[in-house]
Amino acid sequence: MILYIKNMVCNRCVLVVRQELEKLKLLPAVISMGEVELSKPATEKQLNNLKERLQKLGFELLDDRKQKQIEKIKNLLIRKVQSGEIEEHFSITAFLTKSINKDYSYISRLFSEVEGITIEQFFILQKIEKVKELLVYGELNLSEISYLLGYSSVAHLSAQFKRVTGLTPGHFKKLGSSHRHSLDKVKGK
What would the DSSP string read from start to end of 110-175? Predict the structure, then answer.
């Protein structure tokens, strides 16, 4: 039995969800961001209890097929950005088509309809949050950050950063971490 959980965007989220599953005697065979495969089916009562517990923690147990698909797309893109291994000519279309095994025009339309932004906009917002994180840590320079996140140049990264945040990367770095967002809160508009 596979469960889909909204707002699982980091390893800490996985840990919290695992703890809640174990409290309800639901043993996960596999658990990753947004997805839990149970070793045996859950009862209706267990699922209702899990749903309530997860909501109190800011998660949501999904039962709508479209929502499940959207969460899968978001989690794939978040993991890709967090890996810090984005090639310069990375193709979202090829990546998602291969990962989800569905026509890109369908998933793109579905994503925009449900989220109110395009997949590409969501991906850019995730990349900008990663840039913010790397700037705050201060371990890498802009050239290294642009390479890790697949930007063609520092100028391209800087222009996109300014367009999204209203700040240059240098100005943001001076301000510090107060302008960062939780990954589950990163949205357009």
Answer: HHHHHHSS-HHHHHHHHHHHHHHHHHHHT-S-HHHHHHHTT-S-HHHHHHHHHHHHSS-HHHHHHH
